[in-house]
Amino acid sequence: MHLLDPRSLPPVPWKNGGGVTREIAGDPGHWRLSLAEVTAEGPFSLFPGQMRILTVVHGSGMELHTDGRVLRAQLGAPLPFSGDLPVTGRLPDGPVRNLNLIFDPRRVTGSVSVHAGARTLAANPEEVALYLLSGTASCQTTAIAAGQVLLARGTPLKLGPDALALCVAISRQT
What we know:
By secondary structure, this protein is mainly beta. 0% of the residues lie in helices and 57% in strands. It is globular.
């Protein structure tokens, strides 16, 4: 079990200059979990053969323009899409912070689920991270604050009555 504030991780600037990414966890060639600070509109990087799940964790949301369609990324709502998809991000209401799960669907299955309110989330050996959007949570005797990430496998998590949390799970393909 490891608790961290992803905003304290070293920022890596994007090639297009539209923001920075902070890598939280991963298994190279299989999956990556990161936090992106999006400060300018522009094209997304392509991740051929990969799947993406983008979840806005701060800000009003963003629009992903692609192939004549607009995908709306809203606060706390996981949005899955192909890493092959050419996307241009638009920020109608200003900068956002996104939690991004990128994974190779031939090797692993990835998911991001939303949990709200007081409950205990059972120990799940596939769960790799909990991102607390708001409220309070704890794991064993460790308190988790909004904006922090708990990296854990198979550990029960207790959410407070005001909690809104994202659980990231990864399982290997068999």
